[in-house]
Amino acid sequence: MKFRNFSIIAHVDHGKSTLADRILESLGAMGERDKRDQTLDTLELERERGITIKSTPVRLNYTRPDSSGHGGEEYVFNLIDTPGHVDFGYEVSRSLAACEGVLLLVDASQGVEAQTIVNAYLAIDSGLEIIPVINKIDLPAADPEGAAQEMEDVVGIPAEHAIFASGKTGVGVPEILEAIVERIPAPSGDPEGPLKALIFDSVYDAYQGVLLFVRVLEGRVSPKDKINLFSNGKNFDVERLGTFSPGLVVGKSLEAGEVGWIAAGIRDIVDAQVGDTITRTDFPTSEPFPGFKPAQPVVFSGLYPTDTEDYRKLREALERLKLNDAAFSFEPETSEALGFGFRCGFLGLLHAEIVQERLEREFDLDLIATAPAVIYRITLTNGEALVTQNPAQFPTRDRIELIEEPYIKMSVMLPEEHVGSVMQLLQERRGSMVTMNYIGRRVELIYQVPFAEILYDFHDRLKSISRGYASMDYEIIDYREGDLQKVDIYVNNEIVDALAVIVHESKAYGLGRKVVDKMAEVIPRQMWAVPVQAAIGGKIIARATVKAYRKDVLAKCYGGDISRKKKLLNKQKKGKARMKQIGTVEVPQEAFLAVLSTE
Ligand code: GDP
Ligand code: MG
After folding, report:
1. What is the rounded distance in angstroms from the CA atom of residue 147 to the CA atom of residue 525?
2. What is the mean pLDDT, run by run of 10 residues, along the chain of 599 residues?
3. Whose atoms come closest to the Cα of 14: which ligand?
4. How far apart are CA 348 and CA 355, in angstroms?
5. Ligand 1 centroid to 350 CA: how many Å?
6. Does ipTM come in above 0.95?
7. Are 412 and 422 in contact (CB under 8 A)?
8. Relative to the alpha carbon of 18, which ligand is closest?
């Protein structure tokens, strides 16, 4: 059989899922009945947010038309969808490693964006053949030639190689299918050699356990084979395997060049890490596929049930989510203010949001989330090293010799006219410029920035000052020493551990001010005035007051009928859903995220 394994890469919203659907449709992979928009985006949340989290592969049959001069020749295409968000960059690189070529999509009305460039370089680094596709040419604002020229300028792919297409109308799809055959190389690899298969994704199935999504690079695997995972040395017996159509189709074997799934009685998704290599114990390969990195959370946040009774329910929900997501971590933590909860680790802010949203929606939990934090490396004055991502657990200042924080390399694409204000924003965020490249009338800025600086409202600010035109991407590069301080927050003169934040010395005062003002605004009025304070090492740096009620809300009910009074109390109770009692004060979720608010 003749195979072509490819992926579609693009900046978010440039039409990847839509084009994938057109391709599926034109190859008859979608019956009228299950024709829905964006078939490959399976999770409900993916559909709603228009992002792809899991890479869903599809196997398609393509028969070349007579017009190609090779009429009747048959091919099997494996299309591997990749996540489109910066949080999932490593998953993208592993999905690409499972392919020989990519369709690099650019929206004809937008041109090249930050993720277009980052994805293109990932593909180039993996040695893949790139087919440039200028998409959405049906749009009135489309400038296909301009977009193709940008692709040539930035990525070095000749503009005349580009195919003009529309996922909406289907224009260009036949040309794309022919280009896949003509330009993307057939997979190499000896089916008679030792087994080497790359895991590019994994999902949990209630009946079969973990399903490994693999690309077989060398050799062959069949049911009853004993397989071995390189990263942890564990062995499993292959129970069932097959291909994607897009549902799971059971097959007899998978061999070099093929893309498929394997069920091997794996119960824990942590044993099925993306990027790991599988081999056969009876015919092992000596070298794994290079570049394996265990999934590592980089953003952390505390999650607490608003109702302490929900602690067990939250634990069960986290365990359920973890079944399907090796990149997400959690461990129990206790906060003096919030009680029992969990410290959770995520690949990025979007990943954190997705997990929180799923917990609330699918498991019906009301949660308080603390402000996201990065991992800090601390050297203590006694020489000991400490790694923590929890501001509440920071040692006191007199015990700290130095603190190091993670830095990212960030690339921002934007129109020329906004360069000044975006550079100013990056400067405010303690960024330093590496380079600036002109691409037509647009500019690519490369900066090094402390990761923590982009956790709080960076993306929103970037979008608003560029009128929505700037796009960004980033990767963590290293750790550097920083003049960092812990700002504590007091409510009603009690320290609230879960509200502590780590911030650069130059920003401590501004941040303290912002947090207490925001909190005073969102904490409901009490019977008496409540002070909210920010402090560094016990020294107050900002203060605000939650004013007292002017009148008791119940006062107007005195003497009135009791049912009215009850109604009022009930109404108040409902509004409490996302509140946490701290001492005698009720603090709403918003207050915990005051640090994230944009002025
Ligand atoms: P993805 O984020 O790259 O997967 O992008 P989607 O496929 O979800 O598309 C993003 C948006 O662009 C959706 O609103 C689509 O309906 C729209 N879209 C996608 N392809 C086309 C196209 O060829 N023409 C037009 N006019 N709109 C498109
Ligand atoms: Mg999509």
Report:
1. 55
2. 94 90 85 44 49 66 93 94 74 90 96 88 90 98 95 90 97 97 96 96 85 95 97 96 84 96 92 94 94 87 89 93 86 88 91 87 87 94 94 90 96 91 96 91 92 88 86 90 94 90 92 90 85 93 87 50 54 54 78 69
3. 1
4. 11
5. 20
6. yes
7. yes
8. 1
